[in-house]
Amino acid sequence: MMTSLVFSLLLLLLLAPAHSWLSLEDWGSGSVAGSIGDFGQCVCNVFLPDTSFPGDRVEHMQTSSTDLAVEIKLQINKVTSVKGQLVVLLSELTNLTARLEILQSGPDKYIKLEFEIIRIELRDFATLVTQLKTSLNISSPAIEELYIEIRNMSLIVDRLESYDRSNLEVIRIEFAKLQKKLEKCQDDREEISNSPIGSCTHGGILRFGRPVISQLNANLNAGFKYGGWGKDSSPLSGSEEMYWYAGSSDLLLSKISLYGDYYKLIMRQALRTNELYEVYKYDYRGSGNNYIVRSNALYYQFNNPFKMAKYNLTSSTVVAEVVPEATNRFSYHYSSNQNLDFAADESGLWVTYATEASNGKLVLGKIDEDLFEVQRVWHTSVFKQSVTNAFMICGVLYATRSVDTQTEEVFYTYDTNTSEENYVSIQFEKFQDLYVYLDYNPADQKLYMYNNGYYVYYNVKFRDA
Ligand SMILES: *[C@@H]1O[C@H](CO)[C@@H](O)[C@H](O)[C@H]1NC(C)=O
Ligand SMILES: *[C@@H]1O[C@H](CO)[C@@H](O)[C@H](O)[C@H]1NC(C)=O
Ligand SMILES: *[C@@H]1O[C@H](CO)[C@@H](O)[C@H](O)[C@H]1NC(C)=O
Ligand SMILES: *[C@@H]1O[C@H](CO)[C@@H](O)[C@H](O)[C@H]1NC(C)=O
Ligand SMILES: *[C@@H]1O[C@H](CO)[C@@H](O)[C@H](O)[C@H]1NC(C)=O
């Protein structure tokens, strides 16, 4: 009885328009009856006059609150799933701590750089955990514990470094696995706010995450400064987890390796390697480091003659076509031979280059993948040699330049939908000064970089539309 009174009063307060508030007199006249209840409490019955009860609005409110309840439940499920993942992470970290301790007691040689990587990764873990904590706005013991674990591990790494011994391959693999798990946590978090994969209902890049340094290249050779890595942006069914890598110490692209999944990449167990060159037989080599893999085909700059090429990774066959007017006189700022830059986004395949007629300014071409020809071109006003690299997202070209040895920035955008160009400043941190490869993958919304022989990637946060 009490509840029904309170509820009805509340409804009236919430729903009755100002001009139709019931006066106390309306309540009176026999529609309110007071009595003493069975347990001596005061019982009050209210009978509302039918005409003044806003039934339709109550119904509307009930529907809205049901929707709200469903929404809240969804959010709670997400939080619960993230919490579950954190528990798994924690046990992984504990395991890793144990392994570190075992290694600590062994007499071996450690490489300084490896510690640097581990330290960066730990810092990334800490950042991710902070972000998780902020975005979920909960204080969870699991998250707090994760913090402590990370801090403990940092201390262990510090101590280990002073030994300056041993080979850290095992730890690197473990870290890579952990990183992948944390990344999944982060993806879940981003999913709550980022636009879905494949969708372009966002307002372009808002910011980049910290650089995630995955690993030294599969050749384990820091001298392999030229190359690229990433995922197929439009994978064949069954190849969704596949990664590719190509690296070398010279400017030529001579082979490309495919890896079944991330762990295989980290463990350097290639599914297959396609050789683009065999003495006296064929020479399909490329140059320029701005190739991509899409629908199981490698799109790259053919070295000789200067053309764009499409190499079928299944049949090992190649098709090469001239890009009308493209010149090989202008390269990006960091490296030579970067004349044709391939990119894939939510809308397909693109190539960026310069022409003599454009005096070295960037020209952007949309490629028809089946016909393998440039369908349409856009002319930008940015000089290619001032650019360090470029990539495409949702039909928008993003060009980067160097700010200093640790910072890079997207400084220019060109929107092919509107032919509008803009000078902007979206900065991101580099692992090392120079890099030759930078491309966005629309299939996971990450930006892949090959930075002085290291696999690096960035999460991309989009602006709300
Ligand atoms: C860590 O986990 C692996 C399996 O994932 C197990 O084989 C190993 O014994 C564990 N190490 C420690 C020190 O707990
Ligand atoms: C986080 O939750 C607290 C209450 O638990 C609230 O006061 C605060 O405004 C929330 N912060 C954000 C950023 O949502
Ligand atoms: C972290 O280190 C402290 C001190 O060495 C230790 O007491 C604590 O149990 C460690 N915590 C975890 C979660 O390993
Ligand atoms: C690559 O070659 C295979 C086998 O010949 C063929 O089935 C596939 O369609 C080709 N892919 C492309 C993108 O041309
Ligand atoms: C811009 O064009 C691309 C195709 O080039 C398309 O996928 C995208 O949805 C367009 N965006 C807008 C805002 O029209």
TrEMBL record:
Keyword Cell membrane: no
Record's signal peptide: 1-20
UniProt main location, coarse: secreted
Domain spans labelled Olfactomedin-like: 199-464
One Pfam family from the record: OLF
Superkingdom classification of source: Eukaryota
Keyword field contains Kinase: no
Keywords carried by this UniProt record: Coiled coil, Secreted, Signal
Annotated coiled-coil segments of the chain: 168-195
InterPro entries, per the entry: Olfac-like_dom, Olfactomedin-like_domain
One of the GO biological process terms: signal transduction
Example of a GO cellular component annotation carried by this entry: extracellular space
Subcellular location: Secreted
Protein name from the UniProt record: Olfactomedin-4
